[in-house]
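Q: I'm writing up a methods section and want to include an example of the input and output format. Could you take the sequence below and give the corresponding predicted structure tokens, formatted cleanly so I can copy it straight into the document?
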Amino acid sequence: MQKFSNQNSKDMPFNEMVALIKKNDDATLKQLYKTNFVKVRRYVFKNSGDEQQAKYVYQEAFITMWRNIKDDKFSAYTEGALNGYLFQMAKYKWLDHVRSTRYKNTTFINRDIEYDEPQIEENELPNRKIKIIMDSMNKLGERCQLLMRLFYFERKSFREIAEIMEMDEASARNEKYRCQEQLQKMS
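A: Here is the clean output for your methods example:
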């Protein structure tokens, strides 16, 4: 076991690297940590973060990845897949952090200023959005209307949609994407 600890992770077979991660091999974990941190740090910096935030987000992602490997919840067949998985987790954790920080740091400049705000019921705004979407959907062709209804309202899988619409699954995915693009242009 010690012979792998001193090797670079690129020199060992991937399944051995995963086995060493499961056994908490210090050198393997450190190498994996160092290899991927730079990329995550760069991403956090480009998205308004600092060194401390990058370390925090990366630590959280690394621990999650480690737990998932230990619990056999993640299986990868290459080091690239493992590195990509780790980066994606860090990226999503950073995005969650940014969203929550912005929400928590909302400040109100002057609460004494009064203005006339139109009285909108709580449910009226979501209902307006739904109406806009439904009006736009009615402008789509019949085929797109059927596909969107099957996917979003009836929660059918692409396999089921393909059978209903007499096409292959890949075509159903592509068609749904095109219909969704049309819908977005209209709303």
